[in-house]
Amino acid sequence: MPLMRSADWPSLIGASVEIRKNTRTVRVGVVDEAMTDSSVLWLGSDGAQPRASYETAPGYEAWTELKELDRVDRYRFTADRLSRPLDG
Length: 88
Hints:
The N and C termini lie far apart (about 35 Å). Strands 1, 2, 3, 4, 5, 6 and 7 form a seven-stranded antiparallel β-sheet that branches. Helix content is about 0%, strand content about 45%. It has strands at about 5, 15-20, 25-35, 40-45, 50-55, 60-70, 75. It has one domain (about 5-70). It has about 90 residues and is mainly beta. It is globular, with a radius of gyration of 13 Å. A hairpin with a 6-residue loop joins strand 6 and strand 7.
C-alpha cells in the first residue's frame, strides 16, 4: 500500500511512519508521542537511534500507510495496533 502524508500527528501515536523533509526520507520509526496541535511528534528510540522530535515548522512531514478499520467506510492512519474503543 502506498504511503500517505498525515497532518493529524496525534492520530499517529503507535504508528510506523516515515519522516520526510523536502521529499527526502529523514528517518523511519514508531511515533512515541505527538502534540495535540500537530506541531511536534517524537519517534521512539530504535537500536542505535535515540528518541527524536520533529517539528512541522521547518517542513518535516509524517508519511504512513492508511489502514482500514472494522467498518468499510472508516479509515485511520495507524500501525498494527489500533486505539482502544471509547467506552460509552
